[in-house]
Amino acid sequence: MTAFRDSVRIRGSVATSLALALCLLAVSAGQVEPATNAAAPPAPGAALSLADARRLAFERNWDLLAAKSGIDAATAQLMAVKEFPNPTLALSTAKIGTYDNATFTGNGVWQRSYDTIAAVSQLVEIGGKRRDRQASARSGIAGAKARFLDAKRVLDQGVTKAYTAALLAADNARILTESARYMRREAAVAEARLKAGDISVSDKNQIEINAAQYELQAQSAEAAAVQARIAVEILLGNPQPKGQWTPADTLATLIDRAPPAPAAKPGAARPDVLAAEADLRRSRSDLQLQKAVRIPDPTFSVLYEHNPQFPTAPPPADTVGVGVSFPLPLWNRNRGNIKAAQAAVDQFALALDKAKAQAVSDLANAEVAYREAAERFQRYREHIRPQAAKVRETVAYAYEKGGASLVDLLEAERTDNDVRLAAAQAMSDTASATADLAAARNALTELELNLPKR
User: Fold this and answer.
1) CATH code assigned at 186
2) In 55, 228, 296, 307, which residue has its Cα 20 to 30 A from 326's Cα atom?
3) Interior CA angle at 66 toward 64 and 71, to 5°?
4) pLDDT tens digit sequence for 394-451
5) Angle at 184 between CA 179 and CA 186, to 5 degrees
């Protein structure tokens, strides 16, 4: 019989283990790798456009994700303030004695002459405290949304300017490399003229020195380009930025694809201004809440008392009672919290005025910078750069034929190099000013701010 029980126990344990293994296998077979909304960072050597960079930044940037979590925290706060306070259950037993406390009904715990009271109490908030608390939480949600949109606005501006800086550094490296190549070609011409006895060795060496300087400057510009690409990857949330991607856009295409200025909307404001307005509304609701705290909140109670008597007493009847309690506002009128809330209202009002002034200042500065950069770029593109290139080609041809001096050649080459660098800087300034102008004009209304997410 014992052997039979052991056999059954072994078979049962084996069956249980087999069933558990089958369950684990089914779970692992049906398990799906959780999908993530964040796109992968640019692969080494891959081409990255500005549009892709902005999209990656909106999905992976750490600061933007933190700002987005602020909306969830504010929403949770609204859920918390909507909840009612829980009732309180109180149980107490008095007149506890020995085994001799028996009554005529018996000697059990419930029959002894103990005085047992069970009470349920419920706090009821009055004076509009719940209303003010919920209004504060709703303003907190609006402020969190506005801060998220402002973080997105600033991130869009930052990514565009960082991408533009990477393009400018790459253009500087290309221009300096071209200048070095021009000077190397002139050095070959100088070598032929030296053999013919037209120039001295010092003239040839000076051309080679200028070519070497341009090459060193090109290497420095290339290092700056790598650093600029790393700065872009930081904004994209790449945990291992190395700057090994290549830009798919150019400065010229960024300027050509610049979006038109958005039309002004009545009642619209920048997200940071809307956030400041929401903070002011929240502080005013908090002030009203602190004033309402002066009104005492009653606590209503319902109790049941069970108190059997000794055998010599008549049989008792259990009693039911009701009660109410509230604090007496004699010594504490909440003056300190009210004064602190009023100071917070004043501070947020000043912060709102500052945010409005900053928005107006940013817009004015962006418009001035954009007009100056755009006009400067147009002059370089249409007049100065073609003229400098033509002068360099003319002087180089004359130098090859012996009609120009070395000083003229070096000056023409230096001027053309400086003009091309300045033209690239003007293009970069125009693209950056366009991003600043778009960020300064980024405005939305309260209705758009409170629209639910799609």
Assistant:
1) 1.20.1600.10
2) 307
3) 95
4) 998 888 888 888 888 889 999 999 999 999 999 999 999 999 999 999 998 888 887 7
5) 95
